[in-house]
Amino acid sequence: MRQDFFTFLTILNEGFRWVFSVDLNYWWQGMEERGLAGFLTIGIVIVLAAILIGGFFLGVFRVLAYCMMAGFLVLVLLGRQTPSLATISVMVLYILATKTVGHSRHHYKVALQCGAILVLVGSIFLAVSYYVGIPTLEAAFGDVKELRARIQDTSLLDVMEEVVPEELQSPDMDGVYSGGSLESMPDGPQFTGDVAIHVELEEQPTDYVYWGRFIGNTYRGSYWEESGDPYLPENCLDYPSDSLSRLVAFCQEHPQDNIESANQFILETLASQTTYNLKVGEFPSDVDCAEYFFFDRKEGYCIHYATTAALMFRIYGIPAHYVTGYLIPADMFYLTEEGTYAADVPDSQAHAWIEIYQDGVGWVTIETTPPRVIEDNGGSSSQDLSALGENGGGSAVSAEGQSSEVQPSDPQTAVATAETETEQQSEFSGEPSIAAPSLLWIFPILLLCIVGMAVGLVLRREYLREKRKKKNSKELFQDLYEVMTVQGLDREADTSDMSFVEAVMKAFPWLNREEMTQVMRLVLDLSYGPKEETKEDTTRVRNFYKAFCQHIGEGLGGISRFTFYFVDAWI
Predict the structure, then answer these.
(1) SS3 assignment, position 334
(2) What is the rounded CA–CA span in Å between residue 128 and residue 566?
(3) Which of 3, 318, 379, 545 suits 229 as a labelling partner, its CA being 20 to 30 A distant?
(4) Residue 529 carries which DSSP code?
(5) Could you list the residue ranges that cross the membrane (predicted)?
(6) Phi/psi at 553 (5° precision)
(7) Per mean pLDDT, which range of 13-27, 181-195, 298-312 is the poorest?
């Protein structure tokens, strides 16, 4: 259940980041710095508890609780997780308990007894499931975790991938990691050493393979996002000048004549003025990551180097975008039985670099992490731009300092096939990773919008019904008149005398004439006579109103019935 909740929070954070450009992690850190996080936590717990407890007594809270659970399950499935047995069991028990109480709402003693029995039975069921059910599954199917992983391979996201047109799919939909976050962790990236991806190539590589998983061309201060085509040079020139004032001023103080000199200056400056450190600690939430790394902390790792370099290239007017993925050494590849060359790449090979656009050549991979670090960690240093310009081909300087022919970087053509074996932590996030935001988010967003509209309509209906309970006989009769006119009664009918009864019976011949006559006479006496309204009078008009609306509602169908109950909310 904890893993389900964590997946829910991670997906929710990515959704807010993609839709509203709000990073909930940094927002929450800001609340902690102001001392407000504790109060917010208590407030959230109180609201959730009120909704869940209210579900036992009020229909509107019950609907809201069901919608919350449905949204939770949808986001867990989108996060490529199979909801745990405990999660499903608790939800089912809650629904059964609220339904039991709901059917007995007029007999609270019976309702509470039924609820207590259900909770007791549910607790026994959970205990039996945990201590008997799981061992039984292990005996029948083997490792439960492996079984769950196989189930997750047919998750909702995979099904949606088959339905959604290819042009709407993100290039990073297999859920390895989002790749755009610049969050740093106090103790550095936590690598497991397990295989993160399986890569196959037709030919044996002679140099390091840069395999891109995410391309960011829009910088948001604490993360990168992909907006539009990241391979169009004109989409890779913008930068937030207001939040990068110091970096802009620094580049203006050191003008460069051409792309080669800019490349040399940027890489040498980063290597000489900053220190590579995986355990750089957390960055403040209210600062720009690139400026804080370059001018203040002066420590960071590949994501910080790549981000700062990409922004500096853009300031010099050179198109650049941010890339995350895996840096795979040539000696990691092995010959398969099919004659291809494969590599089982561990999560520790996760890396960040940039690509810049050079006229006549195209997109060129630039290794921005200092060469001494790359050499120590088995990577490759940057492209030799002057050689590219002269020869029109590509060359990359390996860790040993030897050049080898390469092609302009393309993360999709560099790898023939790639399969995600397991979801692992990477250098770019301290949390279990998820798929990059893509247009698939349209589906859960639409779902949440529909749920929000439904909850709003239910809340509005409950409000109007409560308000109607406080109305007197004349006000109820006015509502009855409105319903009747909508359903076909002539608006010219005179409500000031008994002739109104004939008009009503003509429009609704199924009505009981005697009851209609009594209600009309009562309303006229209250409006024009000395009669004082009693509780019995109000009850009579209200019962007639409810009976009329119920009969009308039962005779409607489709959208008309929905409008009658939830839009007009007549009953």
Answers:
(1) strand
(2) 43
(3) 379
(4) S
(5) 37-58, 85-102, 114-132, 439-459
(6) -60, -40
(7) 13-27
Per DSSP, the three-state class of 345 is: strand
Q: How far apart are the first and last CA of the chain?
A: 40
Residue 170, pLDDT > 50, answer: no
- Mean pLDDT for 150-169 is 49
For 26-30, 66-70, 230-234, which range has the lowest pLDDT when averaged over its residues?
Answer: 26-30
Classified as helix, coil or strand, 240 is coil
DSSP state of 151: H
Quick check: 460 and 84 in contact, CB under 8 A? no
Unique residue bearing structure tokens 């309303």: 523
CA 278 to chain centre: 28
Rg, Å, the chain Cα set:
33
Q: Quickly state the pLDDT bin for 311 (edges 50, 70, 90).
A: very high
> What is the spatial distance between Cα 62 and Cα 306, in angstroms, rounded to a whole number?
49
Helix axes 59-78, 37-54, angle to 10 degrees: 120
What letter does residue 56 receive in the DSSP assignment? T
Q: Which two tokens stand for residue 389?
A: 């310009």
CA distance 420 to 429: 17
pLDDT digits (tens, 9 = 90+) for 215-242: 999 998 888 988 888 899 999 999 999 8
Sign of the dihedral through C-alpha 129, 131, 134, 140? negative
Q: Measure Cα distances from 136 to 73, 128, 428 in Å.
A: 25, 11, 39
pLDDT digits (tens, 9 = 90+) for 365-385: 999 988 766 555 544 344 445
Residue with tokens 């400026």: 291
Return d(Cα 133, Cα 140) in angstroms, integer: 11
CB 223 within 8 A of CB 331: no
Q: Do the beta carbons of residue 13 and residue 19 sit within 8 Å?
A: no
Residues 6+ apart with CB under 8 A from 414: 209, 210, 211, 212
Nearest to 25 by CA among 17, 394, 501: 17
